[in-house]
Amino acid sequence: MNLLALDTSTEVMAIAVCRGDLVLQHQAPGGAQASAALIPAIGQLLAQAGLELRGLDAIVFGRGPGSFTGLRTACAVAQGLAFGAQLPVLPVDTLLAVAEDARARAGATRLVAMLDARMDQVYAAAYEWSGDQWQRHGDIVLQAPQQVAVPPGWALAGNVFAAYGPRLPAGERIEALPAAGALLRLAPALLAAGQAVPAAAALPLYIRDSVAQTTAERAAARAAAPPRP
To answer: Angle at which helices 180-192 and 94-106 pack, to 10 degrees?
Structure first.
């Protein structure tokens, strides 16, 4: 398949293109820079692969959870490119991509995927590899790091260890991201399962309803948090 994958849900802007067996990837700082840098970087990567937008089978993007601004950026770019080229769009959960990235990096098959949600919280979900696809156990949650449930023997994967390491449950720890390469590997099975949508129906996945806390909410969070070592 010919696919374009992109993710700007974290502080890393990740893009990948596959043309048959050829896979090209690009990573750069994300955050506020992603909105200006994403489209030019996509154009360069497509050119390197010898592809035009109309030659793609679909556009894949990390739909969330993650940075509100980053999710909107990725979704808007995926929609705009798909509208112009009349392509389907495949929204993929970013925590699923974290799980796949951890499997590629460390061979993990049972793990809790996590992303930093800021404000002393993490996004988390449990995934198990069945041999040909991932199964999610339970819902995606937004919790304080010390509240994340990790089954015995399961690994932890994500970008949360530098910020919350001492407060996280015990277990093997794998640095992982919703990498564009992981999105590409997930895409064929998800497309075959009919999860692609028209560009207009591609939407971000927001788990948190607000990016700001009141003074009282911040005070309550500080009081509930255990002392830092």
So the answer is: 110
How far apart, in whole angstroms, are the C-alpha atoms of residue 66 and residue 98?
A: 12
Give the pair of three-digit tokens for residue 112: 């809790």
- CATH 3.30.420.40 range(s) for the chain read 2-93+178-201, 95-175
- The pLDDT tens digits of the residues spanning 21-53 come to 999 999 999 877 888 999 999 999 999 999 999
Superfamily of domain 95-175: ATPase, nucleotide binding domain (3.30.420.40)
**pTM of this prediction?**
0.90
For the segment 86-128, what is each residue's pLDDT rounded down to a tens digit? Answer: 999 999 999 999 999 999 999 999 999 999 999 999 999 999 9
Q: Which residues pair with 2 in a beta bridge?
A: 19
| pLDDT score for 155 | 98
- Which CATH number applies to 2-93+178-201: 3.60.21.10, 3.40.50.300, 3.30.420.40, 3.30.230.10? 3.30.420.40
| Pairwise CA distance, residues 5 & 109, whole Å | 23
Cα(92)–Cα(61) distance, integer angstroms = 6
Backbone φ and ψ of 189, nearest 5°: -65, -40
Which residues of the chain form beta strands (DSSP E)? 2-7, 12-19, 22-29, 58-64, 89-93, 110-116, 122-129, 134-143, 155-158, 173-175
Q: What is the mean pLDDT of the chain?
A: 92
Distance in angstroms (rounded) separating the CA atoms of residues 1 and 130: 23
SS3 146: helix
